[in-house]
Amino acid sequence: MIVTIAAGQQPRFTLNPLQPVETMTAYIVQVSLGDTPAGTLEYKTLFAVAFMLFISTFILNIISHHLRQRFREVYE
User: Fold this and answer.
1) What's the pLDDT score for residue 21?
2) How far apart are CA 24 and CA 55, in angstroms?
3) How far is CA 12 from the centre of its chain?
């Protein structure tokens, strides 16, 4: 939640890091408040955003695992 608050919670897409934006998790929470009908565009974008969040987290975990294995010190 601190990332959401620090980012500004504004639904804006920009590559400028000085402008406030809305995080992916904040978008999921905002759209899926329980009143999104199944089959609508909003409903489908929830799954698309959640999938992208999963993929980006998975890729970062793979990279960190690789870096940890590469720079790991083995003690005898």
Assistant:
1) 73
2) 12
3) 15
The residue behind tokens 């698309």 is 48
- Per-residue confidence of the chain (76 residues) as pLDDT tens digits? 666 666 566 666 777 777 777 778 778 877 877 778 888 888 898 899 999 999 999 999 999 999 998 888 777 6
- The whole-angstrom separation of Cα 61 and Cα 59 is 5
- Name the 3-class secondary structure at 21: strand
Q: Are 37 and 15 in contact (CB under 8 A)?
A: no
What are the beta bridge partners of residue 21?
A: 8
In this prediction, residue 58 carries a pLDDT of 97
The pair phi, psi for residue 21, each rounded to 5°, is -135, 175
3-state secondary structure of 14: coil
Written as one string, the DSSP assignment of 56-73 is HHHHHHHHHHHHHHHSPP
